[in-house]
Amino acid sequence: MTPVTRPRGRLPARVYWFRRAMVLTLAFGLVWGVAHLLGGRSGADDGPSARPVGADASGPTTSAAPPTSAPPQAVTSPRATQLGKGGRRAEVRPTVLASPEGTCTVSDVSAEPTVKGNAYAGQRVVFAVELTSRISPACTLTIGPSTLVLRLTSGSDRIWSTQDCRASVPTRKVVVRRDVPATVPVTWNGQRSDPGCTHSTSWAEPGYYHATAAVLGADPADRQFELRTPPRPVVTKSPKPNKPTPKGKPSASPSR
Question: Residue 201 and residue 33: Cα distance in Å, rounded?
């Protein structure tokens, strides 16, 4: 076999430039690859530090959440108190009423009259007589025309009294308590009273009167009230309807 004869001597210049370009390309690629690899690892290590502290469940127990203010305290009140926007209302327990301990001592019971609503002349007026005990927590008392008196006066003028109109006081057994009043309704017909409580007396005029209530044997309580002029009814006048034209008669004269 004839051996391969290799050319001897200097190669062309383009061969050397090609080799140099290949070496530089390989070197640049190697440097870029190493830099990219190191940069990727550095970015991976910086990831957790870029997140908020509170986002890592395995992080320290110290939370970065903003501190919440303590809820406002409920104010002690007999009614439910609203704690704030979106807050709950405090539940109020019902008042435990005292159980009666025997019959009331008459001198221990006070009676205070008040008018229920507005009082108008010429109409019935309802008084709410509130009974409370001064000392006993709770006791029982039989109320009726013989034990409860309500009298209306105007100066020295005696206008009306339950001693004349005994049927105005209901007969019932009530529990009188020191903290919670018992209410007894007494109705006045709006007229003056006379023995026998006839209905032939005159009506009381508008003005200021005094209502005095008492349980017989106890101190009376006096309250002033106003007997007002009743409001006048508003009468709306309806327009009169037009009279229909009689049948058979022309509504206008015929033209000639």
Answer: 121
Domain that holds residue 179: 106-227
Q: What is the pLDDT of residues 122-162, one digit of tens each?
A: 999 999 999 999 999 999 999 999 999 999 999 999 999 99
Token couple for 44: 């991976």
Residue 28 has what DSSP assignment? H
Q: Nearest-5° angle of CA 190, CA 121, CA 215?
A: 40
Q: What is the per-residue pLDDT for 11?
A: 64
**Residue 120 and residue 213 share a domain:** yes
CATH classification at residue 158: 2.60.40.2360
Q: In whole angstroms, what is the distance from residue 241 CA to residue 13 CA?
A: 127
Q: Which amino acid, residue 3?
A: P
End-to-end, the C-alpha distance of the chain in Å comes to: 154
